[in-house]
Design a protein that fits this description.
Helix content of chain A: over 70%
Mean pLDDT of chain A: 93
Number of helices of chain A: 9
Distance between the termini of chain A: 58 Å
Largest sheet of chain A: 2 strands, antiparallel
Oligomer: homotrimer
Shape of chain A: globular
Low-confidence stretches of chain A: none
Strand content of chain A: under 5%
Largest interface: A-B, 22 and 22 residues
Number of strands of chain A: 2
Chain lengths: 235, 235, 235
């Protein structure tokens, strides 16, 4: 059962990566988004292959299976998606370093403490790490909907529309992950291991493949504005 | 005893992170420094929480306790502090990549080989790793007080003053860490495990929280110069 | 036998690092390349010291020795070399983020799945990871000889010559690594452990020290063109 889901994940991510690269814009104003959106499912494909082969899939000590490649996938793919979002929020303004460092740092802490929570055999330690992970997660959402949304709104135009839609899509999908995690076998154990694997497969395909295609399409529509911004900056 | 120090560390770092963000400048010329200085103690808070909960706190095999979260903290927070320092030395000149890569690389080697030294059960291996770690550390100081100081001095002005003060503050505090390490239980064992934990707590609060506040204040005072530099670059 | 090779590696890399820094150009248009090319063998020296001391050198379970520091070296040094190559391909054009993220991501997957292949006790799992590693490797070569070569060719001039020569040198040397890996004890076992260590030592010296010197010399010859590009960008 789980094994079928993991193989489907590998194929969907591999094909998604090629598809996003093949159909994505290669124009100078958008290609970095295409490159990032294609790399994300390629990393995820590698993680699904590892989970399918059983590499770094381990029993945490009480019969619950830990899929460590998942966390390795997330620790690299989520910063990539967030970097694209920051570049978009600042309408490709070149000085993005501080925002990217801050949001990527909070995001990394969220994922690493999520892994610590999943690894904990003691219930209260598991809860403390889950709550601290949620604090870092709240910091990520604060950045997306606070300072970054403000910057994007101050520039306005079609790009702000794209930012709001991309940020909204990611925010909604990402919010379901900790719920599945909390209900799954690593947390409360309300849903079965198989149900958890299938649920995360669906979320991963939405957050990585579907997002890559729709975000790419939205950027293509805003291409004239992106081009004129670039021309103005180089002038 | 140690447990109290670790809990104090968690609280001091959490409050420090919020305080640095709340009081730091959000102006376009400084906000990346504020974002970085606030992230640093947030990472340290997570490491102190881990050490308090006993996560990745282990016996290295001869009764000496290894606090692995410390090294995980340092490997991420010191590059952030150094990146801020490089940006300042170059007076926010956009092409900083080479300097940051070189100093962050040397710094990472210093911390990783420090961890290898702490993990070594054999005395001579421990000494070799400590010495090689000092070589990398010397490389970091060479960068700070050689090429970077020269670049900053060549631009001159109020920002060079800020660079000299920030670099001086960090250089002095950082120099005490390897001494505590060498005297502590991972090294010669001259001072007790509890004394070492308290000493590093004091150093961490100075190097992360106090530094974040004072460096932020210094940058605020140099804000007019930073603004005019930014305006000149965009003109 | 192996131990002599590892000590030679440590010395060659340390001396190479100092030599590349001492003889490399410190001009504003080239120094980031000098800084990167000097850091690469310093990291490799640390890895050779670790292998010489036996740190993280382990039996994978069937008598085959795993040199983990090698992979730790590669995961940091190859992105540095590729970043320099990307900067060169884009003739130091400031917007390189997308290319660097994509090629460094593919490269990291290549090395990590290579390590997974080396760690696998099961022959078919080892083969699958080796093949997937080759897929990522093909992606790296596609980037170097496809989009990046096109960008460099579109700018033309002396820098395009340097790009073609540096990319060619790296591409040929890097291609021999997977062959040695496949024939060595972690793979088919056609060549002995000692032969594999010596072969990789020779490759490492060519790919890191010799490359650092010759790439630096080529860049020096193209310095007038680099300077005029920089002047034009700042004008």
């Amino acid at each position: 059962m789980e094994s079928t889901a993991l193989l489907i994940g590998f194929v969907a991510m591999s094909v998604g990566s090629l598809g996003i690269y093949a159909t994505g814009s290669k124009s100078s104003a958008i290609r970095h988004h295409t490159q990032i959106h294609a790399l994300v499912p390629f990393i995820a494909a590698t993680a699904y292959l590892a989970m399918y082969l059983g590499t770094f899939v381990m029993d945490r000590g009480d019969g619950v299976t830990l899929y460590v490649p998942r966390y390795a996938d997330w620790i690299f793919t989520t910063p990539l998606l967030l970097s694209g979002l920051v570049a978009l929020a600042l309408h490709e303004h070149p000085r993005q370093g501080g925002y990217i460092v801050a949001i990527v740092g909070l995001n990394a802490l969220m994922i690493l403490t999520g892994l610590l929570s999943a690894m904990s055999l003691d219930g209260s330690t598991r809860l403390i790490w889950f709550l601290w992970s949620c604090v870092a997660f709240a910091g990520v959402y604060y950045m997306i909907w606070g300072p970054l949304r403000e910057r994007s709104a101050s520039y306005g135009g079609a790009l702000h529309e794209v930012y709001r839609k991309n940020a909204g899509q990611l925010s909604v999908v990402w919010l379901i992950y900790p719920v599945v995690f909390a209900l799954g076998p690593e947390g409360l154990g309300t849903i079965s291991a198989a149900a958890s694997v299938w649920a995360i497969l669906v979320l991963d395909v939405i957050a990585k493949v579907a997002y890559g295609f729709t975000a790419g399409e939205r950027l293509k529509k805003a291409e004239p504005e992106l081009m004129s911004r670039e021309a103005r900056r180089l002038a």
